[in-house]
Amino acid sequence: MHAMQYEFTLPADYDMGAIRSRVARVGHLLDGWDGLGVKTYLLRERGVHGSPVNQYGPFYLWNTMEGMNAFLWGGAFQGPVNDFGRPRIRQWTGLAHAEGGAAGSPARLAVRRRRPVPEDVELAEFMAGSADETERLAAEDGAVLAAAAVDTHAWEVVHFSLWDRDMPEAEGEVYQVLHVSAPERGALPRGRQW
């Protein structure tokens, strides 16, 4: 599993209805994408769920590098680049994935929490704890799924979770979920990735 996210931070007075319309128009295009476990079309609105910004920030869980590369370099990614500019793309290597008790429910909110890997920790212990946190999140009431991944360049762990409720049981930045494309969700490896 490989996680990926890019974000477009938009002006404070931006009409976020334009993002909703865009996703309604094009969101289905990845519903059958080879190699894609899950793509969540995410939105943060200034003043909603504590967000200080307007932001469009899709988050991906990929099953294959070929699927991710086909998306990035095969032309599909050029649309957002043409409309919003070329973003910095964060990428993380998968640590863990777990389906939640609400796995069959539509996701309403997503929570992303990024945290640095401290210098003075035992890496195996820290990563095992991050994988355990994924299982704990997935076990919370209303959890659709949870995942953890690590960026070994920046030494950062990201926890990502989807929720079927308005008040998720997770800490971090809260996003509204506009659409979920999940053609190969069932093929995402479960549990620890090592």
Summarize the structure.
The protein has 194 residues and is an alpha+beta fold.
General description of the model:
It is a single chain. The protein is an alpha+beta fold and 194 residues long. It has one domain: Alpha-Beta Plaits (2-Layer Sandwich), CATH 3.30.70. It is 22% helix and 37% strand. The protein has 4 helices and 11 strands; from the N terminus they run ββαβββααββαββββ. Strands 1-5-3-10-7-9-8-6 form an 8-stranded antiparallel β-barrel. The model has no long low-confidence stretch (mean pLDDT 97).
Q: What are the SSEs and their pairings?
A:
Elements: E1 2-6, E2 8-10, H1 17-26, E3 36-44, E4 54-56, E5 59-62, H2 65-73, H3 78-84, E6 89-99, E7 109-116, H4 123-139, E8 143-151, E9 156-163, E10 173-181, E11 191-192
Antiparallel strand pairs: 1-5, 1-6, 2-4, 3-4, 3-5, 3-10, 6-8, 6-11, 7-9, 7-10, 8-9
